[in-house]
Amino acid sequence: MRLAKQLAHAGVASRRAAEALIAQGRVQVDGETVTDPARDVDASSRILLDGTPVRGQQRRATYAVHKPVGVVSTARDTHGRPTVVELVPASDLRLYPVGRLDVDSSGLILLTNDGELANRLTHPSFEVPKTYRAELGGRSIDEAALTRLRQGVELEDGRTAPAQARRVAAHALELTIHEGRNRQVRRMCAAIGRPVLELRRVSFGPLQLGALGPGEYRRLEESELGLLRAL
């Protein structure tokens, strides 16, 4: 098995994140620092991450979490801020977030130790839809503003793909995107002259935030995992 895939199966990180860890020289195999994610390993290989042995494949688990504002979407934070992983008391599992929500945003985020699933849900080629509810400043939202969002807007890192946009109140809209650029919804709204005052992700693919309150979580059922894998 490829080293990056083995790390993902062990719940260390998603496959892409595992490849980055390997490239940074943080992984050793049988006493040798390895930087090639395609390195073959097997059950007899002794794998260390930052000097700590990597355990075998964990039981797979995925949770839906309502991330509150002020919580960072990482497994660890060097500034001591609360992390989304700390919201789920699953001490026997090495969970990590699927994608990101910026610290000033709230809403639905997934935690998992299933590297293959995380890779599928975050890889741009799969175009997993994510829907956000945004409360906006500036003048009320008109059809011209919605049309611009639907057609895509020009940002400093290129034009966005067409999005689904609908007004839910004079200063609130729901926006569905298929990309995962940094702070994309905030930048799209700023580009049409409506700064985001409050942002919440309400769906991720087929999953809905629903009645989960801030800081609450639930483990996904097999039927829900099947829907995610089918995306």
CATH superfamily of the largest domain: Pseudouridine synthase I, catalytic domain, N-terminal subdomain
Average pLDDT, all residues = 91
Number of strands: 15
- Give the low-pLDDT segments: none
Class based on secondary structure composition and strand pairing? alpha+beta
Shape: elongated
Radius of gyration over alpha carbons? 19 Å
User: What is the count of helical runs?
Assistant: 6
Describe the largest sheet.
Answer: 9 strands, mixed
Strand proportion: 25-35%
The CATH topology annotation of the largest domain reads as Alpha-Beta Plaits
CATH class of the largest domain: Alpha Beta
State the helical fraction. 10-25%
Q: How many independent structural domains?
A: 3
Assign the CATH architecture of the largest domain: 2-Layer Sandwich
Alpha carbon gap, first and last residue = 25 Å
SSE string, helix = H, strand = E?
Answer: HHEEEEEEEHEHEEEEHEEEH
